[in-house]
């Protein structure tokens, strides 16, 4: 089992997208905002090195997101952003083209409020434990 805390305000990917225009072709494309990219980079630095092992077996990723406000937040979007961060930080192997998937569950994940200490508490266990 792996447990660690990311001491940053949780950020979703989908609410932090921007529409940009390719300077050469003039075509529009969707890009992640600077705020999300910065969050992703900070997370990479904050995840302990001993957990960067590219897990390639089925796991459950339980995350408790502590938000600074009691606003309604989409848990699915938070989970999606966290899973992308875990892949980028090399904690999990990229399973976008694999079958079966590596993240097979998010059992126990939820959103709480902590105005003074927003963070994400992560627990990764092998599926079936």
Written overview of the protein:
With 129 residues, the protein is of the alpha/beta class. It has a single domain, classed as Holliday junction resolvase RusA (60s Ribosomal Protein L30, Chain: A), CATH 3.30.1330. It has helices at 34-46, 75-88, and strands at residues 2-6, 17-21, 28-32, 59-67, 103-105, 110-113, 119-126. Strands 1, 4, 5, 6 and 7 form a five-stranded mixed sheet that branches. Strands 2-3 form a two-stranded antiparallel sheet. Helix 2 (75-88) links the parallel strand 4 (59-67) and strand 5. It is globular. The mean pLDDT is 89. GO terms for molecular function: magnesium ion binding. InterPro entries: Endonuclease_RusA-like, RusA-like_sf. One of its GO terms (biological process) is DNA recombination.
Structural topology:
Elements: E1 2-6, E2 17-21, E3 28-32, H1 34-46, E4 59-67, H2 75-88, E5 103-105, E6 110-113, E7 119-126
Parallel strand pairs: 4-5, 4-6
Antiparallel strand pairs: 1-7, 2-3, 4-7
Organism: Ligaoa zhengdingensis
Region (Disordered): 109-129
Biased composition (Basic and acidic residues): 109-122
Which features would summarize this protein structure in a list?
alpha/beta; 129 residues; 60s Ribosomal Protein L30, Chain: A; two-stranded antiparallel ribbon; 21% helix; 2 helices
